[in-house]
Write a structure and sequence with these properties.
19% strand, 6-stranded mixed beta sheet, globular
């Protein structure tokens, strides 16, 4: 069995090939394409080359599954239509994922099973107290307005891997996982289940991101529509494509570019980014009734010791203390970065979403 994994992000795509053998799944090849502006069929043909006819299944990361698509499933016409309908809630992700579903169907075979693995499914059983908004109940019920949560595959991958690195915590611990890439999110996990997460009805809620605003007073949006005459489409574009690090700095949404800049707005953007995460860490420590481990993943989380240190600085009050040397030495690899006297374990966990996709495909098949 050869499984193709397709992980479409907001600004990139990661393709993977896995072979199933008696001992499990082996990664044959992986390719990360930072800007997927080229036609998916061309990229897919280039990646697979003479292996097109060896593929037995394709597993896709789908960001939004809504209220009905809460479990991994085979993509049929009904599922595809629902993913398309939900594009309104995940405009940077669901349409791109569907392009790859259709590319696989056209290029490989219309007969091979294509499996959808949903970011939102990890949060399907999140408690109501962290799921609902304080809006009229009937309105929310009629329009399926609630906090769905996103980046679930990444947070699940981090949590599963952390159990190997931190066996004392296992499934009974209180864990805060932080996924920092183009999109950013943080999740509170207790006894193996998420109890809260920063992203909500859409992937825009929560932390400051590359081009997304994160938490914002809804009154600002109403005011801008009335005062500046902005259309709903324009407001949506601002929230998703012109805000976050890019909006505050005026320079770039790329953290690497901001870290080497001495522009005061770039510095402010980084400060705001880290401050927002620090606030959530404190809030989730309170929600969990304490914390046993903090996990960092994603491109920024795995590769920027400076950002990790800035986030967790002066958090000894809740038992978190970072080892500066270990933090500096842990870049792009797994490792613990907490100080010896830290009551809370702090770890960097490279996020392997592709392996989760492949494993989910095997379960379905």
């Amino acid at each position: 069995m050869t499984i193709l994994t397709v992980n479409t992000g907001s600004s990139s795509v990661r393709l993977g090939l896995y072979e199933k053998n008696p001992t499990g799944l082996a990664n044959v090849e992986e390719k990360h394409i930072e800007s997927a502006s080229e036609v998916p069929e061309h990229l897919l043909r280039s990646f697979l080359q003479d292996r097109l006819h060896r593929i037995t299944a394709a597993a896709h990361r789908i960001v939004h599954g809504g209220s009905t698509l809460t479990k991994t499933c085979i993509i049929n016409e009904k599922v595809e239509k629902e993913i398309d309908r939900l594009s309104l809630l995940a405009p940077l992700h669901n349409p791109a994922a569907l392009q790859w579903v259709r590319a696989c169907r056209a290029l490989i075979s219309s007969g091979i099973p294509q499996i959808a693995v949903f970011d939102t499914s990890f949060y399907a059983l999140m408690p109501d107290v962290s799921r609902i908004y304080a809006l009229p109940k009937e309105l929310c019920s009629e329009h399926a307005v609630k906090r769905y949560g996103f980046h679930g595959i990444a947070h699940r991958a981090m949590f599963q891997q952390s159990k190997k690195l931190l066996p004392d915590i296992g499934n009974k611990g209180k864990v805060i996982s932080i996924q920092l890439g183009s999109g950013c999110s943080i999740t509170a996990i207790k006894d193996g289940r998420p109890v809260d997460t920063s992203m909500g009805f859409s992937p825009n809620e929560g932390l400051v991101m590359s081009t997304r605003s994160g938490d914002i007073d809804a009154g600002v949006l109403v005011y801008l529509q009335n005062k500046a005459g902005l259309s709903i489409h324009e407001v949506d574009k601002i929230l998703n494509r012109s805000s976050g690090l890019l909006g505050v700095s005026g320079l770039s949404g790329d953290m690497k570019a901001l870290l080497v800049s001495d522009d005061e707005d770039a510095v402010l953007a980084i400060d705001l980014y880290c401050y927002r995460i620090k606030k959530y860490v404190g809030a989730y420590a309170a929600a969990l009734g304490g914390v046993d481990a903090v996990l960092f993943g994603g491109g920024v989380g795995e590769h920027s010791p400076f950002i990790r240190k800035k986030i967790l600085d002066n958090m000894e009050w809740c038992g978190i203390s970072v080892n500066g040397h270990a933090n500096d030495e842990t870049t792009g690899k797994e490792g613990c970065i907490n100080a010896d006297n830290s009551k809370v374990k702090v770890a960097v966990i490279p996020v392997d979403e592709s392996l989760v996709l492949a494993n989910e495909a095997v379960k379905v098949l």
